Hints:
Layout: E1 11-13, H1 15-28, E2 31-37, H2 48-54, H3 58-78, E3 83-91, H4 97-111, E4 115-120, E5 135-139, E6 143-149, E7 155-161, H5 164-180, E8 182-183, H6 184-191
Parallel strand pairs: 2-3, 3-4
Antiparallel strand pairs: 1-7, 2-5, 4-8, 5-6, 6-7
Helix pairs in contact: 2-3, 3-4
Amino acid sequence: xxxxxxxxxxxxxxxxxxxxxxxxxxxxxxxxxxxxxxxxxxxxxxxxxxxxxxxxxxxxxxxxxxxxxxxxxxxxxxxxxxxxxxxxxxxxxxxxxxxxxxxxxxxxxxxxxxxxxxxxxxxxxxxxxxxxxxxxxxxxxxxxxxxxxxxxxxxxxxxxxxxxxxxxxxxxxxxxxxxxxxxxxxxxxxxxxxxxxxxxxxxxxxx
Length: 207
């Protein structure tokens, strides 16, 4: 179902409409919030640590992350005690500068209680014959958001899918990916912890 999600009818939401639609539901949600991330590059100009990365200042990026950003992440996770956050992050090798940065963010997210697992892109290649898998977030197993991005990784709003059959099918697929993925901590220790600072050569931190 995930590989054909783009063909499913959904409610288009621009950038502001998505946030207005999502946050009230998110604050009331219970159970598991599933997140599937696939793209190797995103633009995050609203995040100071990412801006430092994009400017080539890795030490400043990490300092921001280990300071105010860490507290913001902890506050975010603590704000929804009835909601368990689970994320499947699909990765390609070598890691893009963005992914190397995001793995450092995940250190703090896992410490704050988010459950994150890593899945190699080769494992989902059979599902990507036409396009990359979508960026997906689900709430209460009743609503799904496909978050949309421009080719360079710029956020472009979302589509909301309310069909319970589609939502349950996608949740089931993400859960199966999660079951077969590697826990973030050993992946980080083996693949990320000893990497040198990323060489940012483009404006989108993609490498």
